[in-house]
Inverse folding.
C-alpha cells in the first residue's frame, strides 16, 4: 500500500500540477517566454541564439503570425508545429519545459468546447522592435 501511494503521489502531482498551471500561460508562447531576474527567455533573445532571420522578431502575433512562413511544409521555414513540438519534447529542452515549467499540450493549445476543436494559444510579442539592428 505504502509503495503504491509513493508511486501514485508524484504522478498525481504532475497531473494536477499541469492542469492547474495551464491557465498560467493564457497566451501560450509569450506567457511562458518572458524575462525574469534569473533569465531572459523572450523569443527575440532565443531568435538571436538560433540565428533566426529578423522576420521572427518582426512578427506581431505569436505564433499565428509565424504562419506567413511556417504554415506547413510548403512554407519557406517548414511547418511550425513540427519545429516547436520537437524542440519542446526533446532533451535537454524537454526537461526544462516539462520539469521546470510543468509544460504540456494545453500550455500552447486550448480547447474550443463549442466546436470541439483544439486551437493554438496566441498573443502579442513581448519585446520592442529593433528598427536598427546589426543583425
Ligand atoms: C510552458 C512554457 C513554454 C511555452 C508555453 C512555450 N515554450 Fe518555448 N521553450 C520553453 C523552454 C523551457 C525552452 C528551453 C529554453 C532554454 O533551454 O533556455 C523553450 C525553447 C524554445 C525555443 C528554442 C528551441 C531551440 O531549438 O533551442 C523556441 C524557438 C521556442 N521555445 C518557441 C516557442 C513557441 C513558438 C511557443 C508557442 C507556440 C513556445 N515556445 C511555447 C518553454 C515554453
Ligand atoms: C519571413 C519568413 C519567416 C518568418 C515570418 C518566421 N520564420 Fe522561422 N524560419 C524561417 C526560415 C527560412 C527558417 C529556416 C528553415 C530551415 O533551416 O530550413 C526558419 C527557422 C525557424 C526555426 C528553426 C530554427 C532552428 O535552428 O532549428 C524556428 C524554431 C522558427 N523558425 C520559429 C519561428 C517563429 C516562432 C516565428 C514567429 C514568431 C517565425 N519563425 C517566423 C522563416 C521565417
Ligand atoms: C510549445 C508549444 C506546443 C506544445 C507544448 C504542443 N504544441 Fe501542438 N502545436 C504547436 C504549434 C505552434 C502548432 C502549429 C499551430 C498553427 O500553425 O496554427 C501546433 C499544432 C498542433 C497540431 C496540428 C498540426 C499537426 O502537427 O498535426 C496538433 C494535432 C497538435 N499540435 C497536437 C499537440 C499535442 C497532442 C500536444 C501535447 C502532446 C501538443 N500539440 C503540444 C505548439 C505546441
Amino acid at each position: 500500500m505504502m509503495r503504491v501511494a509513493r508511486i501514485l503521489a508524484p504522478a498525481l502531482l504532475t497531473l494536477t500540477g499541469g492542469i492547474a498551471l495551464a491557465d498560467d500561460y493564457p497566451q501560450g508562447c509569450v506567457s511562458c517566454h518572458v524575462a525574469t531576474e534569473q533569465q531572459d527567455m523572450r523569443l527575440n533573445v532565443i531568435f538571436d541564439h538560433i540565428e533566426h532571420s529578423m522576420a521572427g522578431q518582426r512578427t506581431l502575433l505569436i505564433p499565428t503570425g509565424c504562419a506567413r512562413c511556417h504554415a506547413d511544409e510548403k512554407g519557406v521555414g517548414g511547418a511550425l508545429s513540427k519545429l516547436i513540438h520537437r524542440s519542446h519534447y526533446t532533451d535537454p529542452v524537454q526537461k526544462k519545459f516539462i520539469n521546470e515549467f510543468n509544460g504540456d499540450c494545453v500550455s500552447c493549445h486550448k480547447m474550443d468546447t463549442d466546436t470541439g476543436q483544439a486551437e493554438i494559444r496566441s498573443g502579442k510579442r513581448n519585446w520592442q522592435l529593433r528598427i536598427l539592428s546589426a543583425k
Observations:
- Confidence is low (pLDDT under 50) at residues 1-22.
- DSSP finds seven helices and four strands in the chain.
- The longest strand covers residues 109-112.
- Residues 2-124 form one domain.
